[in-house]
Structures are given as structure tokens and as C-alpha cells.
Amino acid sequence: MARGQRVEIDGSESVPSFYGKELRFQRERAGLTLEQLVEGSFYGATYLSEIERGQRSIPADLARHVDRALKTDGYFERCCEDVRRARRNGHAEYFERILEAEKCALTIEEWCPTVFPGLLQTEAYAYAVAAAIRPLEPMAETEVKVTARLARARIFEEDHAKPCYWVVLPEGLVLQSLLQPQQMAEQLDRITALVKRRRIIVQVLPWNVGAHPFMIGSAKILTFADAPPLVYTESLHSGHTIDDPALVAGYQKSYDLLRAAALAPQASLALIESAAEDYRNGKQPNRLEQRHLAEQ
């Protein structure tokens, strides 16, 4: 797309798009550029443009600023909660900030030692995880959550350059038969397909690697072109977003050390493909043997 080419917004696509289209209409009616409208706020023109295109929700402080500048009598501030609810439909409130951040990130680095990360899950795997966590939940509620989780993976179908997603998977997770063998093969096939399309980088941490920096906890580390990095950690029924620079730097260093302890990407891909083939043939994949490690 040529630089400066106007993109028409489909306000029926989503609640954020609806309000984003209205924001552009009000701004242009007032004869203001993006730069002029954000002047005096803590936000940039690019940030405002992404709000207008429905790619970001509008923060409350920016909504108040916009209402003052456009004389819209608090309209956009009142819309904030509608947009936030629409954004997190099917997701926990504590995940809201990361849900939006994933779409804007330059890089996402993830370590999730107990289940495949949500961005990589197939429908069958997502249902199995949801049912295990909340076995008495009505199916309709589970379906909403699974649909929302699968929708997050659309970032791999969009701009090839963003985000760069790098994940380290424990070997035990690849070999743990959480689903029926054919479904497990399909889950691993999804991961290998994304690797071969050059949408993600995967490394496998061998089960016998010994002590490593992330023996405790999970982490999702996100970096951005126009904002400081974030770290998201999650436990069973809660999540926490970290933006303290010193803590973020500590997580980044630990992740680098974890990555160094894992198998190289090509060896990791071969292991995942082999496990998928075993599942397809009705076999339980074997653990990586020590002699294979010595060959790396």
C-alpha cells in the first residue's frame, strides 16, 4: 500500500472499528490532522491512527483529551468501556492489556511450560484446556473463550514482518498426549506449518537439560516500536503485566539464558515433526535420548 493512501474503515467490523470511524469523522470535520489532535497529550499520531482503524482501544485519558479538542461532550470517554468490553470478549479482564499489546508488538518471546501458548493452539487443544480448567462451565461460555483464543492467532495471517514470535517449548509438552493421537498430530502440525511459513521461531528445551533460568513461572515478553517493553506472567486464575524497566530487563536476560539452553531451531523442528508422525502412526513419541543431545 502506498504511503499516505487513505484506508476506508468498516465500522460494522467491530465495536472498536465503529468508534474509530466516528473518531476520524469528528476529527476531519473539525479540520484537524492526527498530529494536531494529539497535541498536548502523551500520545503520538501513529497511536491515534491505529485507534481510528480499530486496531487499538482508546485510553480514558486520551478519550478525555479528544472530547475537549473536538467538543464532543464526553462522547469518546463514555465509549471507552464499550470498546474495552468488546476487546476482551472471551478473555479475562487481567489479560486485556496484553490482548491489545500482542497486535502492536514488534517481538513476542514466550515460555509456557504447562500448555502450548494460546497463539499456537488448535481448536481441539483449546477446548481440552478450557474444559480441564473449568469442567462445569456451560458449553456456550467455553465456546466464546475458545473462539476468542483462536482469533488472536490472526496476527500470523497479517503483516509478515510483525510480530516476530519466538517460543521455547519444554520437550515434555511435545510428548504429553493431552489429546487423541490424531489431534495431537494436528496440534504439532500447526506449529511446524507456522515455522515453515517463517511466521514463528520454535526451540525445544530437552527434558534432561537440568537446572535452567525458568524452572519457576511462565513469561511473555513483548517489545514495541513506540513504547517500552512489557512482560506478562500468568497463573491458574490470574495474570500480571510488568512494565518496571529493571524487572523487564531481568526477564529478558533469563529468557536469553533459557533460549541458549534449548535445542537449535532446526533440531527442534525435526523433533516436533518426528513426534507428530509418531502420533499419526498411533505411537507414543519417545523422549530425546542423551546421544542425540551430544550430536547438537
Provide structural commentary.
The protein has 296 residues and is of the alpha/beta class. The protein folds into two domains: 73 residues, 434 Repressor (Amino-terminal Domain), CATH 1.10.260.40; 203 residues, no CATH class. 49% of the residues lie in helices and 11% in strands. It is built from 13 helices and six strands. It has a six-stranded mixed sheet, with helices on both faces. A hairpin with a 2-residue loop joins strand 5 and strand 6. Helix 4 runs antiparallel to helix 5. The radius of gyration is 22 Å and the shape is elongated. The C terminus is likely disordered.
Strand tally is: 6
Radius of gyration in whole Å, from Cα?
22 Å
What class, by secondary structure content?
A: alpha/beta
Strand order of the largest sheet: 3-2-1-4-5-6
Detail the poorly predicted runs: 290-296
Please, how many domains? 2
Order of helices and strands: HHHHHHEHHEHHEEEEHHH
Determine the N-to-C terminus distance. 43 Å
